[in-house]
Structure formats: C-alpha cells, structure tokens
Amino acid sequence: MLKRFPTRRTFTLVSLIALGSLGSPQSLLAATPAENFVVQVGNAIMAAARARSVGKFRSVLQSKGAISTIAIFSLGPYRKKLPASRKREYYGLVAGHISKVFAKHASKLAGQSISIISSRSRGKSVIIKSKVKYPSGKQSNVTWRLVKRGGSYKIFDVNVQGIWLANTQKTDFTSVLKRNNGDINALFAYLKK
C-alpha cells in the first residue's frame, strides 16, 4: 500500500493549528506588514513618551517617518520657495520640530499598549485605525497614514482626537510664510526656536 503524503491544504491547516499554540491565531493571521509596522512604531513612540525624550522621538521619526514628504507637504503653495541647496537642512529642522512637539505632549502619548482595529489601502497609502490603551484604563483612537518609500512603509500622518498632524503643521508653516511674504528664512528661524 502506498503511503499518502499530506496535501497542501492539510499541511496548511496543521501549520495553522501549530501556530495557534504560539499565540492568538486571529492576531497571527490578521496582521499585515503595514499593521505590524504601526504596532512597532506605536510602541517606539510610547516608549519615547514615557522617557520624555526629544532624542528618542527624533530617532523614531528619522527611521520610521516620511520626513522629506511631510516637510514638502507642510510648505503648501510655498514649496517652490525652498532652494534645493537647503532641503537637507529643512528636513532636519522639521524632524526636530516634530520631535519637540511630541515631547511637549509626551504625557498624552505615553500609552501602555496599541492594538489594530482595521486597515485599508487608499490610493498610494494605507490607512490603519488603532486603539491606544493608557495605564489609567482610558483608550484613544489613533489613525495612521502610511506611504511606501524605498521598499518599506513610512509614517506620513497621524490622526489623534480627530486632528491630522500633517495638516496642522502645514497650516502653521504656511501661516509663518504668509506673515513673512513667503520668506523661507522666516520659517527656518521659526523651526530653530
């Protein structure tokens, strides 16, 4: 009698049952690379917030954020005023500015855990809804907009309490530029404060 080898379907089912013993099968099967990225970044941001560290926030932003995309978006109609020779400096100032804002609001970002609610593709980005739980038991919804850069995901925007941070930053930056007749040096001075 010939021995019958397991079919692919049987092998997959056995593998899933075995994986189930390692953790929640639902979470193992449901997590996408984008969702895993958000959990990783969310945990890093919460750790930076608990440490109240501008440097840690900056490290997360520089490695996981689409800084150049955020920075150019934040200039709005003034983006053509940024000389190519000053882009690198500008990107560094934007990363520093965002890091300081995050550190200023560290107590609101110092969550205990993050869980994914849903995710969906939207054009060239992925929108991920998550829930952050705080030590007090309070929970807050946070929505993330990811973009693909260099073959990996990067954070483009975050919505906390109904406010998209990139849009808020764009409003602030364009307001500074408008008050100063589009002078990019005025924005640089503002970001260096």
CATH architecture: Roll
The fourth-level CATH homologous superfamily is Tgt2/MlaC
CATH topology: Nuclear Transport Factor 2, Chain: A
Helix run count: 9
Q: What is the mean predicted local confidence, pLDDT?
A: 85
Specify the CATH class.
Alpha Beta
Low-pLDDT segments: 1-30
- Spatial arrangement of strands, main beta sheet: 1-2-3-4-5
The run of helices and strands is HHHHHHHEEEEEHH
What's the gyration radius in Å? Answer: 21 Å
Number of domains: 1
Write a short abstract of this structure.
The protein is of the alpha+beta class and 193 residues long. Helix content is 53%, strand content 21%.
Describe this structure in words.
This protein has one domain: Tgt2/MlaC (Nuclear Transport Factor 2, Chain: A, Roll), CATH 3.10.450.710. The protein has helices spanning 8-20, 25-30, 33-51, 54-64, 67-74, 87-104, 106-109, 165-179, 184-192; strands at residues 113-122, 125-133, 139-149, 152-160, 163-164. The protein has nine helices and five strands, in the order H-H-H-H-H-H-H-E-E-E-E-E-H-H. Strands 1-2-3-4-5 form a five-stranded antiparallel sheet. It is α+β, with helices and mostly antiparallel strands.
